[in-house]
Structures are given as C-alpha cells and as structure tokens.
C-alpha cells in the first residue's frame, strides 16, 4: 500500500504504449517508452523500444509504425525483464491508464508475471485538481506551456507526460497535497484502487531477467523531422533562385539549431538541383533560359554552403558580416 508515501519522495515511472489497436489481448503492443522520475531528479527516459507484436501492424496512419519497422524488434516477452526493471520499486503512471494498464497487464501475463504495481492517471489530474475536463495529451501540454515535438511516438509522448506531471506536482505542493492518500481523497476514480498494490521490487523478484534489448525509433523520427524542416526551408529560400543575406543568416541559424550533418544537407542540395535539372531536360532540350536558371540555382545553393562540384561545406558569409570580420582582423 502506498497511501502514506509522499509523492515527491517516491519513484514514479511513466509508461506509454503504441499498439495495433484498442483492445488488449486482441491487439498487441508495438512500442513502449518508459520515463523514470526518482526523488530529487529530473525525469529520464530509461527504456524505449519498438516491439514485434507477432501479428500484422495496424493503425499505421496513427503511430506511423509499419511491419518493416518491427520485423527485427524484440517480442514483448524478450524485453519484459527490462520493462519490469525500469518500473521496479516505483508507482506507475501513464496519460491514460485505462488504455495502457490493460496492455501492460496482458503482455506481462504472457511473460508469466501476474503482479501489477500501483498506478495513477495523469490525464485525470485536470479534473482531479479542478483545472478543467480531461483532454488529449497535446492539449494538456499546450495548456501548461509544455512543448511536444513528436506525437504518437512512445518515448516522446511519455517524456511529455512526465513533464506535464511536474507541472501538476507544483500545484499539488501549493495545495498541501503531499501523499498518495491525500491525492486519493480529492475525488473517486477507479485507478485509486491500485494504491493497495505494492510496487514490484525487481525483475528477478517476478522471475524475469533484463536482457538489454531495445530497438528505438525516437532518434530516427527526430532526425526525419529535422531533415524535413531543413528541406522545407531550403525549398522556400531557393524558390526565386536568389538568396539574400538575410536568408543566408536564417539558414545558418537553422543549421545550428538542427545540428544536421553536412553530408545530409549536401544531399538535400543535390536533390534540389537534380530535381530542377531533370524537369528542364525532360523534353531532351535545354535552352538558354533554362541553363541560366540552373546557373542561378547553383549560385544560390553555393551561398548556402554547397552546390554540385564543391568538395566541402562552406556557406558564403553575408556581405555585412564579411566586412565586419575584415575590419576586426
């Protein structure tokens, strides 16, 4: 029982699943993300992996996961020990426990684990604290001023959930709500019944062994989004075939922010140039006007750091900055 435990002094593990559908048992987990928040520490992503469900992946239009993505991912039973170890000794939370906990219970039961830890729902913190009705995670985060970069990626969603709970935790502190028992007294929700459960001590205590197997898509998705941002900005900048000093400065700022590899940006520059060139020679004819436009495009890409024929990445500094640099030297 956790009623007398102080919320701030108790480890909390936030968990999020992406699944093939809505019904545990019929549908299966295909991605899991776990963030752990130990007392006095910031939330930390401790487990993140795709999961092979052993069945065809559905709902790809929601989570973006395909059959190919999970083809070489571990089965849930292979990572059950890692998951239990990640949540061991803690109270579990998710943004919608009425969705996530049934999947956790079913998948753990297939691995031979019958015990469930105590858990609560972050989505219900809004009505619990009289802040308003429960809502989607992205809406709740926006209301609390918390940025979300990726949606329906388990690791990203669960990190956002943990940060959201930190905001609610401050409200709990201001209202003098210290223990899980105090939290339970605020309103009646079914998940409070789980407060009679004891935290799972360790993977070994339930007969599991952590295997340190994980196949994450968080890094891949983050890279894809960063690449897409640069690509869209690049298309806008070179659209008129003339790049201003202001546009050079803005693209340099974007490159610094995204921290993309020079090879990735060079590939996108090449893609732009090849695309325009392919369009011009599609009729097996290149007139002087088209050739001039290709030259202007090359010059624009050159100013931004790379154009076909260059060996290294070298953005052309705006004139004002170049003059300033020369004066200082």
Textual characterization of the structure:
The protein has 329 residues and is α/β, with parallel strands linked by helices. The chain folds into two domains: 7-216, Nucleotidyltransferase, domain 5 (2-Layer Sandwich), CATH 3.30.420; 219-321. The protein has 13 helices and five strands. Strands 3-2-1-4-5 form a five-stranded mixed beta sheet, with helices on both faces. Strand 4 (91-94), helix 4 (97-110) and strand 5 (119-121) form a beta-alpha-beta unit. Helix 9 runs antiparallel to helix 10, helix 9 (218-238) crosses helix 11 and helix 11 runs antiparallel to helix 12. Mean pLDDT is 92; it is low at 322-329.
What's the helix and strand layout?
Elements (H helix, E strand, L loop, with lengths): L11 E8 L9 E9 L6 E7 L9 H4 L3 H4 L5 H12 L3 E4 L2 H14 L8 E3 L3 H4 L8 H7 L10 H21 L5 H7 L31 H21 L6 H14 L3 H19 L7 H17 L14 H10 L1
Parallel strand pairs: 1-4, 4-5
Antiparallel strand pairs: 1-2, 2-3
Helix pairs in contact: 9-10, 9-11, 11-12
Offer a few descriptive terms:
five-stranded mixed beta sheet; Nucleotidyltransferase, domain 5; alpha/beta; 13 helices; 2 domains; 329 residues; 5 strands
């Amino acid at each position: 029982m956790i009623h007398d435990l102080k919320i701030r002094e108790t480890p909390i593990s936030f968990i999020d699943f992406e699944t093939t559908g809505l019904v545990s048992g019929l549908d299966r987990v295909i991605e899991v993300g776990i963030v752990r928040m130990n007392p006095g520490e910031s939330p930390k992503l401790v487990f993140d992996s795709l999961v092979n469900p052993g069945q065809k992946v559905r709902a790809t239009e929601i989570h973006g996961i395909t059959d190919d993505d999970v083809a070489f991912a571990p089965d849930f039973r292979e990572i059950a020990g890692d998951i239990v170890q990640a949540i061991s000794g803690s109270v579990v939370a998710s943004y919608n426990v009425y969705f996530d906990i049934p999947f956790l219970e079913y998948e753990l039961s297939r691995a031979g684990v019958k015990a469930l830890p105590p858990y609560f729902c972050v989505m219900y913190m809004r009505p619990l604290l009289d802040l308003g009705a429960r809502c989607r995670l992205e809406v709740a985060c926006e209301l609390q001023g918390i940025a979300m970069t990726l949606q329906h990626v388990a690791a990203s969603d669960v990190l956002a959930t943990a940060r959201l709970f930190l905001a609610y935790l401050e409200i709990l502190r201001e209202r003098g709500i210290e223990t899980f028992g105090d939290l339970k007294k605020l309103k009646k929700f079914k998940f409070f019944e789980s407060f009679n459960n004891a935290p799972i001590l360790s993977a070994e205590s339930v007969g599991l062994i952590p295997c340190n197997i994980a196949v994450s898509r968080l890094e891949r998705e983050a890279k894809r989004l960063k690449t897409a941002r640069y690509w869209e900005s690049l298309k806008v900048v070179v659209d008129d075939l003339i790049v201003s000093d202001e546009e050079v400065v803005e693209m340099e700022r974007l490159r610094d922010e995204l921290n993309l590899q020079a090879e990735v940006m060079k590939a996108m520059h090449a893609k732009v140039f090849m695309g325009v060139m392919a369009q011009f020679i599609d009729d097996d004819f290149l007139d002087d006007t088209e050739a001039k436009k290709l030259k202007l495009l090359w010059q624009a890409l050159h100013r931004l750091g790379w154009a076909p024929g260059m060996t290294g990445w070298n953005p052309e500094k705006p004139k004002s900055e170049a003059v300033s640099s020369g004066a200082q030297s």
